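Sample intake — Acetyltransferase
Collected from: Siminovitchia terrae
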Amino acid sequence: MKQHPLTFKIASEPEEMEQIHQLNYDTFVEEIPQHQQNKSRRLIDKFDKENIYIIAKDNDVVIGMIAVRANRPFSLDHKLHNLDDYLPKDANPCEVRLLSVKREYRKSRVFYQLVNLLVSYCLKKDYNIALISGTDRQIMLYKKIGFEPFAHMVGTEKARFQPMYLTKENFETTSKAFTKLMTQKKKQSKLLNFLPGPVLVSNEVEQAFRKTTISHRSIDFINEMKAVRTKLCELVHAKNAQLIVGTGTLANDLVAAQIKKLPGKGLIMANGEFGYRLIDHAERIGLKHYTLKKEWHDGVSIEEIEDFLKTHRDVSWIWTVHCETSTGYLYDLHRIIELTKKHQIKLCVDACSSVGIVPIDFKDVYLASTVSGKGLGSYPGLAIVFHQEPVVPNNEIPRYLDLGQYAVADSIPYTHSSNLVSALHEAVNKVDVENRHILANSARKMLTSAGYMVLGNEDYSPGILTIALPDFLSSQDIGDKLRENGIIISYESHYLRERNWIQFAFMGELTMTEFESAFSVLQQTLECKGKQV
């Protein structure tokens, strides 16, 4: 559904009044049984001619309202015979009524904006006390606004109301509180997520995730799972793809369990956090392997790999990350594939941070892992393993780590999440590698032109830009300040803190305009500290 800016105003048009009557009916007949049903499904308030209606609109649709009037008698005059006895002697009261917000907007800023405009209107009219019959379902909410209960409950058993009032002094305090609250909510609504996961998802992916959950044994789910797997294979030129409920760590354990069946020893390369994690995966499961270890951010050349293979003839497989998430370093997968084909050894790839980010061809890759919640632009929770050769169950492998169990069951041997699969299905349709490359290159140029030290060059992954901060700046402080301003970057991982690095990841639903906004906040943050990069 296309999102429109919300508008808040005093109702003035005939079509707005008609929608007010319909919203009035939905709330005070259907939801709160205060009035009788009717065929027209319209409820015209008995004080309609006197009411001032403050409304919220989404495009042309009235999605919220609140009414105010000052003419006596109030509705409370008919419910409390001695209403004035409860009011201060200098009271200049108005009555607030008919607060209603459509269900789908109740957890948004609509309510706060309506009340803010109401407060402004009442102060302008010099009303010093506002009365309300607060439904017993929302008494705590009214108290938070500043309304104080008085007298006894009124109404019927089906629709009970508490008389409440708000003074001028509380009006002013509430106005300030709402202004502050709305400023905070505005910042929250504009959070820009530059994390490598979880990423900011598109509206379409969010809607797909919200579909009604269905059984993983239903034909609809089975068909959608098949469609997602087919599209994933087409995206990376693989023959098979298995989806498992889990993370990238699980996907790599599944790969490790399959590697263990291969003869000979392997070679694992590492020049960052996730390359070294592959070594840890191998050691935990007992893989026989060599390692080619480099310092973080140091490149691993094809010549180095080939020289190693020439002196270690027993190597039958290689396992490497494609994009080293901790730095953005991108291994030359094309040349590594050529090398493994030349030496007739199997290649396994951790592509958790590269699928959906850069063009990939797994046609000659034995096994590869990725996840739903990074470059594919969906929610975290699905581990994905690609394989070229058929895989069969193996009872020597724990059930959950046995890729063969998934292969023979079309990826549904156990309970699955229809919501995650639907979201991933929508996300795969939206993958745009070319646009991601253009965006990241423009961002890199903007950062380097401003004097920031960005690791690597355009040969690095467009999905991750790693900035090495000078010693006089703290990555923790900079990250915290950006977060306070609605910019979420990667800086809290121990390996980033240790090196005083921050990262902007371009794996979610982001635009250049949004990065420019984030860049501006970054610059302002540094200026506030009186530092220069």
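Post-analysis note: The chain has three domains: 6-189, 203-429, 432-528.
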